[in-house]
Amino acid sequence: MARLDRWLILLLVVSCHATATYVSVPTLDTSQVGQFGLIGQFAGVSPFSNSLQSANPADAAAFIRDPSSLFLSLLQGPGQLYDSCLMDQQLYLGGSFSSLLSASTLITVNNIARYDLNSNTLQPLGQGVDGPVYALHCDPSNQTVYVGGQFHQPVGANATAYAGSVAQWYNNQWLPLPWQGLNGPVHVITPNTQRNSILFAGQFDATGDGVYFNPNASHPVNLGAPVNVSGGNTALSGSGSNPSSIICQANNTALNPWLLQANVPGYWQASFPYAIQPSMLRLSNTGINNQATRSFSILALGSNEVFQLSYIDPLTQKRTTCSDMCFLANTPSITYQDFTVESPINTTGVRIDILTWYGNGGGLGDVQIFQSENTLYPENTSGNNCSGPSTTSVVGNWQPVFSFGSYETFLSTNIPTSELASSNVSVTYTPQIPTQGRYTLYAITPGCVSTNSCDQRTQVQLTMQLTPGTTTQITIDQTNPQDASTVIYEGLVVPASNSFIPTIVLKPAPGAKPPATPNTTIIADAFSFNRNGTNATLSSILEYSPSNFSSHLPIAWHPLPQQLPTGSAVLSLDASNGNALYIGGQFTGVPYRNIVAFDYASSALVPLTHNGLDGNVTSLALDGSNLYVGGLFNNTVDLAITSMNHLGIYNTGTGAWSNMGSGTDGPVSDIIPGGNDRLWVSGSFSHVHTSSGKVLTAPGNIPWQPSTDQWADPQVFLSGTLVNASSNNWVGDLAAAQTYYSVGAVTTSSWTNPWTRYYYLFDNDETAIVTSGAFWHNTTSNLPVTILGGQFTMQNGAIANLAINHNNSWYGWTLTGGDSARVNSLIQQDGILYVGGVFASQIQQQSVKSFFAVQLSTLTFLPVSGLSDANGNPGQIQVMALSTDKSKLFVGGSFAKAGALDCHGICMLDLAMRQWNSVGSGLDGSVQGMTVDSSNTLTVIGKLQVQQQQTTYAQLTNPTSGQTTWSVPSPAGSSSSVNLQQLTMTAVFAGENGDTLLAGISSDRQTVLGTLTSKNQFNLLSSSASPSTSSSGSSLLSGSIIQQLLFAPMAQSSADQARYPANTNSMLMAVGQLQLSQAGNVSVALYDGNGWSPYVLSSQFNGQPGLIQTFFSEKECCTASSIRHFLPVPAVILISIAISLGLIFVLVGAGLGWLYVRRKRQGLDYPEPMTSPWSPAAHAASAYGASTAQHHPDPVVTSSIAQLLDAAQMATLGNATGAAIATASTSSPQPDLPVRELQVGDQPSPPSQLT
Fold this sequence. Notes:
Elements: E1 10-14, H1 30-33, E2 36-41, E3 44-47, E4 61-65, E5 71-76, E6 80-87, E7 90-96, E8 99-102, E9 105-108, E10 112-116, E11 121-124, E12 133-139, E13 144-149, E14 166-170, E15 173-175, E16 186-192, E17 197-202, E18 219-220, E19 228-232, E20 258-259, E21 266-276, E22 278-284, E23 291-300, E24 305-306, E25 309-312, E26 319-322, E27 326-327, E28 337-341, E29 347-359, E30 363-364, E31 366-371, E32 373-376, E33 391-395, E34 399-403, E35 408-416, E36 426-430, E37 437-445, H2 448-451, E38 459-467, E39 470-477, E40 484-493, E41 503-508, E42 519-524, E43 526-531, E44 541-544, H3 546-550, E45 557-559, E46 569-574, E47 580-588, E48 593-599, E49 604-606, E50 616-623, E51 626-632, E52 647-651, E53 657-658, E54 668-673, E55 679-683, E56 687-689, E57 695-697, E58 701-705, E59 710-711, E60 717-725, E61 729-738, E62 740-741, E63 745-748, E64 756-757, E65 769-778, E66 783-794, E67 799-806, E68 809-814, E69 822-829, E70 832-843, E71 846-855, E72 860-862, E73 867-868, E74 876-882, E75 888-894, E76 897-898, E77 901-902, ...
Antiparallel strand pairs: 1-61, 2-63, 2-91, 3-62, 3-90, 4-5, 5-8, 6-7, 7-10, 8-9, 10-11, 12-13, 13-14, 14-15, 16-17, 17-44, 18-31, 19-21, 20-30, 21-29, 22-28, 22-31, 23-24, 23-27, 23-29, 25-26, 25-28, 32-43, 33-36, 34-35, 35-42, 36-41, 37-40, 37-43, 38-39, 38-41, 44-45, 46-47, 47-48, 48-49, ...
InterPro entries: Gal_Oxase/kelch_b-propeller (IPR011043), Rax2-like_C (IPR024982), Rax2-like_second (IPR048266), Rax2-like_third (IPR048265)
Signal peptide: 1-20
GO cellular component, one term: plasma membrane of growing cell tip
């Protein structure tokens, strides 16, 4: 498949059994939070629960998608992916990359690799191949991977076994294909399962075994030195003034066109010091709309004959002949045209006369000249062939000599005849061989008569190394009177590679017969390489039958019976029908263009209705009777169907073309069957168009639903292009992959439940900015209401910057005020929504300016004055916060007045009176953030002035009194050397005990987070300048931006877990765009007092990390006042022991009191007279004998008390601990149980109960 060059991600998304490192992530306590949401600049978002997840954009990477839709990073590295295939849980990746990083190990793979999905290991295929891989096909029946691209051979392989562009991987080793290779790139490999064959397609016309080749285009003519390239009436200056700039342009495109002067004819010319016989010329136009060649002719210099040419007319699609006036197209879809020479002419130069032009003048973008044979002349000291240089080097004094017989120049040297046997003179030829094949090699020796040297000639020896490891020697006689052409070799010739260079060395032959003259003349011959072939021509498609080959049948590989035009580039095939092969690419036939079908029954090419398309076709996918076509085109050739915008649908049954929606805004590279009624469309586009005209954002890929003929919901977020897909996997050059496709906002009622996504919601997704959100519960409908604010439009502009969702329906207002109009802050309190930002609108007969309040139950606007700058224009509110008692609303930003009240940067609204009041005195500037702590101290950050002194933060005690003055606490005796005034503050949040958390970033991008205590000390919590060495989590890295801080309540918390603050149920949540040492880019992270853990990842449309600005929740939570504390474990143990001892004393006292009362009620108990000596046994028998049992209703009082004490212990400390203590009292002493086994913190009591 054709691809656009870029740095990208190789992304794999596969549902399989690969092992992943799952992380135990704390869960938000939704009983305290309720429904919650995230707001910011992102298009894809994922909850974090696996260490392999990533939001880091890499040059190349691979991901796996687990059953819970998490995208896990497997490998990464610089490069580009072109294709992949899967066989036996082995994923094969092909592209242009030298190495890949997997499991922290950099592995050299050289353009192809294999990832084992069972063991999660990356492995190279041998040593890889020596060029890019464009196409892969996994054949499970033969356990073979077929590889195509633009390479010569596998690295380290025998060069003679490979001719380029194809190879196969079988039984863990590289093997050549039976035909050894092809002479051009292979872009696609696809099976025809019905015919049990495999099709190789690209841009080639010869096989490496010499069976197939195109003689007209088999040898490019060198256009470098000593060829003289010149122009007539060339542009006088600028990049278009050099005629040599258009020699062998990459991919036949006009990278640096040559231009004529305005409105005058001219010419481009190449003069050769030897004769050539052109067989084909390939020309490209300038590609400039207002300056390009329209008509031309080509002259053979010397004879001054005009070449008779034939070509495919791009307009009529018919083969046309021309001579005096040939026409050259100038459209982006036609990158070059081939002109075949009908009557060969020997010439020493070629001149292209430009006769007419488009626009202001003529010019050319690329010129290539081909001939059917390749002749190497000794004057060719350097070369500039598209495939590489041809050179000659000499030993001795060699001088040019002109042959009057052939009118060509050769080299010759004269040496004393007496030194003939010992002379070391030689010429070494290094031929440029365009492709491996079988050649007949001729030595061309000028006659001695034409060089006047017949009495000085002798014999020379030729030493030829034309294949690696093989040397051939032959002696030829140079005493021929007339020009002679001698066959010196027939067989395989291998082109140059990194490990081999073909050479021919000419020197005097050992035992050469000395001439009778004092001097001997040695002539440096010319050598002609003629390619041999025995079959029909080949043009860009080869069909291979592995079963025929293994059965030794004679026809195992062959071209199509009817060929595409010479030079065609095939970029896509679909052979799923079996009986018909659909071909797409860049070609012009009769009467088809860029797409055609091959019918196997008739062995003929069959044009599609309307004769094809006006641009390249890069992808084909047959689904039922519909052939989906993608590429770089807009219309059918005959303009019967227009405005296709790179996509079309061709019904193979009816022959009717139709549009696919209304196409895309950029080229399509792939259409991939994805299963589940999905076709994934991918390419260099950012939007797609529906048939109704709606524009949808699509970051390089989007699914199409054939059953409904419309674009489908992507569900997951993928940024970049795809090259392969199924119902369980996607592979491609992807910059990012996240679980949810949601633009600007996402909400959910549980971290583990599916999140509510917002996609295709905003009129222009990629420009929409959501800055704030709020929830409200509608008691009438008993449904939650989601409110979003920012800078966006919905419903074709009917809603602007503020939207409310109730029962899956959106409504809102149009808050205007120019391009900068936006909502920055929302607060919902007691059913009233307070909206702050920068806007000016007329709503419900009320003029609102940057602030308003609305009763949500009735959508009634409440009268309240707006905010403005000193000139009366809308002010800007950046942030809002409620006072501790919720009776006042503080607003901060850049403004001068609230109604008629002077209010600089901060103002306070009395919610009951809806009246503005000033806040303290001495503050000016722009407020970017604020917080109110439990002691009613207001802290603000921004670009501020306090008492006319610049500051980044300021505080005000008791701001609701209106009588206090702003101050700037100066940290003294702090635990850090951070200068807060040198930071750009990004977040402020009220902590416990009058402390304030501050986050900022320094001028050198170092991020700082710390606590400003009530005693004016700044205690550093985390800093990218001094990363933590704790192993329990990540450290902040430079460039991290913290937008919001809050205390997030965690479910299933206990006193022995790491939390911040310590011994609480909370962790510090940081929202923004953070860089963590172990996790990379994250958007939400948790701090437990020791280190950071990733919590949410997000990505933008372009694949860069997203930025989350706000976390908002349905319930009032996440402040210092909502933190629940636990007593430390040792304190809990001591308290439990004290309670146990107290209970023991109470029970023992109660038991003793009961015995006392009982004995008192019984009266005196006189002992029986002793009848025998006293003994314990006898005493026990008499004390508890039958005669006295009636006086002792509970004889085992001590045992009962012990049981009561044991029961009390178990009730207090738990069954396990109580039993352990009870056992310890009757057994040998045991070591103390670990404190963690007490499980004291599993169900903590509120602090009031604990104290």
